[in-house]
């Protein structure tokens, strides 16, 4: 048995080996992947593509990876995304769109990679996680402010576009539906972060200002999907405050904001008035069976009816993710609603899309991914987790967010960063107390 002198004489690993043995290499690589992911979501698709690769390297760099694998396999939030990917693999047995199927196999690899990264890499510290969240919130606010500046250069032209159903993308070319959801997420997550007392005072001020900016941007640019998600979550927060937490003044204040906010925006913002008027006129065109080629919501209603027909024809496993577009276009050929081929849109509803692509099995797996975390009481009480889940759930009523790369990356990254990481922290064995 070695003596204390002989043990102390053993040299410590030097350089990168010490980083690897201590786990800092894995942790800093994970931090780099998270920062690259956030910056990529805001401004660069290339960084979004590279971030999971860096994350997988971070997981492999964990010096205790063998010990972590059994714990990773016990995470419930890992298995549901893997189930979606397995269903995609099985759809290769009946797909007719082989090139698209092979593309989907590659595109949807983050369902496996991101839960693996956040389940196996050395976890970020609380300060590092707060920094990544702050980068997301403040970054969204800065891009939103720049986009409003672009709007204010010629508000009359922009309002006319809103009247015709068109929306402004962000200055970094983020699609308006995705950007509206990002603004709603930044609003609620940033509000919670700004109340953390351990955060530096200047950062709390920056987060608070970012929340205000995000709220203003949502209303000035009248992003319907983002506003729908934000006000739905505000209603849920008000009901929770009144019925569960018994905080009546807070609940009453939130309900007042829910009533006054939309009315005030309609009275003061021309963009909101044009958007509301356009929405009702749009829906009226579908109801009266007029020409709907240039009306966004009417085309979505036509797509939803088309999707229900396709889903009824393939109820169990659907047509396959790779064949969903072809199946929709074939059904449009039977009933076109007067739409020109260029205006025959896809499903624009994530739940219906899952039903078309994966049938009842695919929809069940998707609901397990989205709502499964709320089945764990501790995760359900985590304000970041339930707000992310509910905002995403509402936004996906109006668009197939997982079928577009930016919103797919947004969901999968935040799923790993917020949900998988939170469950992993819950399941970590407690540290032994000092003797």
In words, what does this structure look like?
The chain starts with a helix and ends in an 8-residue tail after the last helix. The protein contains 21 helices and no strands. It folds into 3 domains: 59 residues; 169 residues, no CATH class; 165 residues, no CATH class. It has 435 residues and is mainly alpha-helical. It is globular, with a radius of gyration of 24 Å. Helix content is 74%, strand content 0%. The N terminus is likely disordered.
Structural class: mainly alpha
**Uncertain parts:** 1-10
The Cα radius of gyration reads 24 Å
Name the quaternary structure. single chain
Membrane topology: Multi-pass membrane protein
Protein name: O-antigen ligase family protein
Domain O-antigen ligase-related: 210-367
GO molecular function, one term: ligase activity
List the helices and strands and how they pair.
Blueprint: H1 4-8, H2 16-22, H3 24-43, H4 45-60, H5 65-73, H6 76-90, H7 98-107, H8 110-120, H9 126-153, H10 155-163, H11 176-194, H12 201-220, H13 224-244, H14 248-268, H15 270-287, H16 296-313, H17 324-334, H18 350-371, H19 377-380, H20 383-395, H21 405-427
Helix pairs in contact: 3-4, 3-9, 4-8, 6-8, 6-18, 8-21, 9-11, 9-12, 10-15, 11-12, 11-13, 11-20, 13-14, 13-20, 14-15, 15-16, 16-17, 16-18, 20-21
């Amino acid at each position: 048995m070695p003596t204390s002198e002989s043990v102390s004489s053993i040299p410590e690993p030097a350089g990168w080996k010490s980083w690897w043995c201590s786990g800092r290499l894995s942790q800093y690589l994970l931090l780099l992947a998270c920062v690259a992911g956030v910056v990529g979501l805001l401004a660069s698709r290339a960084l979004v593509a590279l971030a999971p690769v860096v994350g997988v390297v971070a997981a492999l760099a964990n010096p205790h990876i063998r010990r972590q694998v059994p714990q990773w396999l016990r995470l419930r939030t890992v298995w549901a995304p893997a189930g979606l990917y397995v269903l995609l693999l099985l759809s290769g047995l009946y797909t007719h769109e082989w090139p698209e199927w092979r593309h989907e196999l590659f595109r949807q690899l983050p369902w496996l990679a991101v839960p693996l990264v956040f389940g196996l890499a050395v976890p970020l510290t609380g300060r590092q996680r707060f920094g990544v969240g702050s980068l997301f919130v403040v970054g969204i606010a800065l891009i939103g402010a720049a986009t409003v500046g672009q709007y204010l250069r010629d508000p009359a032209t922009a309002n006319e576009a809103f009247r015709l159903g068109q929306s402004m993308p962000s200055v970094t070319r983020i699609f308006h539906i995705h950007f509206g959801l990002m603004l709603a997420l930044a609003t609620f997550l940033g509000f919670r972060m700004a109340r953390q007392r351990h955060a530096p005072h200047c950062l709390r001020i920056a987060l608070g200002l970012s929340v205000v900016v995000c709220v203003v941007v949502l209303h000035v640019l009248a992003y319907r999907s983002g506003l729908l998600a934000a006000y739905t979550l505000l209603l849920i927060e008000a009901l929770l405050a009144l019925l569960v937490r018994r905080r009546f003044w807070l609940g009453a204040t939130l309900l007042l904001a829910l009533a006054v906010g939309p009315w005030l925006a309609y009275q003061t913002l021309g963009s909101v008035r044009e958007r509301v008027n356009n929405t009702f006129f749009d829906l009226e065109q579908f109801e009266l069976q007029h020409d709907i080629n240039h009306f966004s919501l009417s085309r979505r209603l036509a797509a939803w009816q088309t999707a229900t027909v396709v889903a009824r024809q393939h109820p169990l496993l659907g047509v396959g993710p790779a064949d969903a577009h072809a199946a929709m276009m074939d059904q449009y050929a039977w009933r076109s609603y007067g739409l020109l081929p260029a205006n025959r849109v896809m499903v624009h509803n994530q739940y219906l899309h899952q039903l078309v692509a994966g049938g009842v099995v695919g929809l069940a797996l998707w609901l397990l991914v989205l709502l499964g975390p709320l089945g764990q009481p501790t995760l359900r009480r985590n304000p970041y987790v339930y707000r992310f889940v509910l905002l995403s759930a509402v936004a996906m009523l109006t668009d197939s967010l997982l079928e577009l790369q930016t919103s797919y990356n947004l969901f999968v990254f935040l799923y790993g960063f917020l949900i998988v990481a939170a469950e992993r922290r819950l399941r970590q064995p407690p540290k032994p107390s000092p003797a």
